[in-house]
Specification:
With about 140 residues, this protein is α/β, with parallel strands linked by helices. It is built from four helices and six strands. The strands form two sheets. It has a four-stranded parallel sheet with strand order 4-3-5-6, with helices on one face. A two-stranded antiparallel sheet has the order 1-2. The longest helix is centred in the N-terminal third of the chain and has 19 residues. It catalyses: a very long-chain fatty acid + ATP + CoA = a very long-chain fatty acyl-CoA + AMP + diphosphate; tetracosanoate + ATP + CoA = tetracosanoyl-CoA + AMP + diphosphate.
């Protein structure tokens, strides 16, 4: 039913509704750190602002995300959804030729990577893809 609505209800819509109705409810527990809906909403808003302001991201621009399994992945995804940017999820264990192929197939012109992945990913110079890191990581 939700998908037949016009416009369709997205995961971003559902998340934002929960953030409005239940801001202090737990959403994510990572190691010893608990994140509420409000925490994640605030961080994703800051990330969206930084991505737009510092990297000039606009809706429709595909972005490759090369992040490990950590909370920053969640608010990066939400930030990109808020900007209207399709996200190409790259497995942070993939390297070399397989990573270059994934980037080419995604059609991304920008790749976001955690500081630990930058320079160690084995992708060398990939034509047309700029690499960027912003302070989106978990505290």
């Amino acid at each position: 039913r939700r998908l037949s609505r016009r416009p369709a209800v997205t995961l971003l819509d559902v998340f934002q509704q929960h953030a409005r109705l239940r801001p202090r409810r737990p959403l994510l527990l990572f190691q010893e750190q608990l994140y509420t809906f409000e925490d994640v909403e605030r961080r994703s808003n800051r990330a969206a602002w930084a991505l737009r302001r510092r990297l000039g991201l606009r809706g429709g621009r595909a972005v490759a995300v090369f992040l490990p399994n950590e909370p920053a992945y969640l608010w990066t995804w939400l930030a990109l959804a808020k900007l209207g940017c399709p996200m190409a999820c790259l497995n942070c264990n993939v390297r070399g030729r397989a990573l270059r192929h994934a980037l080419g197939a995604a059609g991304a012109t920008l790749m976001l990577a955690s500081p630990g992945e930058r320079g160690q990913a084995g992708f060398g110079d990939i034509g047309g893809v700029s690499k960027g890191t912003l302070g989106l990581a978990s505290p």
